[in-house]
Amino acid sequence: xxxxxxxxxxxxxEIEISQKVLKKAYQRETETLMAQVRNQIEDMSDMEQLxxxxxxxSAKRYDLDGKYDTREGMLxxxxxxxxxxGWISLEELTGLDSAKLGKISSLSKM
Amino acid sequence: xxxxxxxxxxxxxEIEISQKVLKKAYQRETETLMAQVRNQIEDMSDMEQLxxxxxxxSAKRYDLDGKYDTREGMLxxxxxxxxxxGWISLEELTGLDSAKLGKISSLSKM
Lengths: 110, 110
Prior knowledge:
Chains A, B: InterPro entries: Fluoresc_Recovery_Reg, FRP. Chains A, B: One of its GO terms (cellular component) is thylakoid membrane. The longest helix of chain A has about 30 residues, at about 10-45. Chain A is about 65% helix and about 0% strand. The relative contact order of chain A is 0.16. Chain A contains 4 helices and no strands. Chain A starts with 11 loop residues before the first helix and ends with a helix. Chain A has one domain. The radius of gyration of chain A is 17 Å and the shape is elongated. By secondary structure, the first copy, chain A, is an all-alpha fold. At the A-B interface, helix 1 and helix 2 of A face helix 1 and helix 2 of B.
């Protein structure tokens, strides 16, 4: 009945916290994107602007596909990226062990 | 001072008619696309629908890039395709010689 507290293994509680935070971040990011597209469509008056929206969607789709990497070995990097981009705060990750939080915080500043 | 009336050469008048009709068709098609995207964005409630809009834009962009081929040797095919898809009527091409109109009409039914 030991709890994993090293920086590579993730305890059951840490996984639960991670899933919750990832879900919230994804929801924030996609809702922001939907709102942005709605605004741009509202202001759209020519095809050039529609292709700009298409370009935005192509870039965001690629970005979102790669960014939400939920593999244990990648979670520290995933959270660092989301923190850097402002989709999550370090406080939301409370409950992860301090070594992981330290890594995430450091990586987010790179 | 001869007027070209064969089916491959295009007279100055025919080119003028063609340019006007192509411009109108492109305008109709892109305005329809903009209206369609506006409607879909209005009804959008989740990301799945936003990605469907992205897929639609990718397909239409590719389609529009290839379809409006204004090279003289391709005009008959361009008009046949636009006629088939309903973006132009045969009446709008009045002024082209009858052999070209016949070709366009036949090709549009293939």
